[in-house]
Amino acid sequence: MRTRVTAVLGALLLAIVVAAGCSDGDEGADDSGRDDQTEASSGGGDDTTDSTDDGASPDDGDEGDTSGVEDEVPEGSDPEVRQEYIDAIVASADTGEASPFDAQAAECLATAFVDAAGTDALTEAGVTPQQLAEAEESPAELGIEFPEGAGDVFYEEVSSCMDLRELILSSLTGEENSELRDCVSEALDDDMIKDFFVGSIIEGFDEEDPEFAPVQERIDAAVEPCLTAAGEGGG
Fold it and tell me: What residues does each domain of the chain span?
């Protein structure tokens, strides 16, 4: 049975991978529940013009353009290589009105991903910045081997610049029903939130992945009673 929770999480998963530059978003995922999503909190103000080191930022109304990114595995110092990958991902991110992510949130996701993988893993896999930004494959399919503890690094870093709990709450409940939000927030433990975001970005799972099903089922089982009690349960 496809519940409201499953539908909304599926739409959120698609938004996450598109904002992180890991997909072009044209794979036919269900957009139901997307209207309930709100822009993710990115730990900063409304000004997103400084989202990259050189002062450039993706146009908030457009999907990013990577045409100016050199399609070769970068060489040089680690900070320079790191920034090339981050810039390419941010440039490709969809931060338009339909996305729950602004440019700062896209850079937050991109930076946390690159730092979790490490530049050695990216260059040793032979993945160029543009390939990483435009890839529809999972990191594993690209040959990227994350070091031990990469999931923890990603989660801790992205949590420092985005409110992940608020992102899920806004996606599932909207802004107006405070009783429902309180119920869902209490039902969701930190491990569920971590497993959802680490699975979607580091493991590269999508909504249909059998290995990701237990994560979605745990969230579904925890949250669905709240939605049902509020008269918004899936059927």
Answer: 4-43+54-229
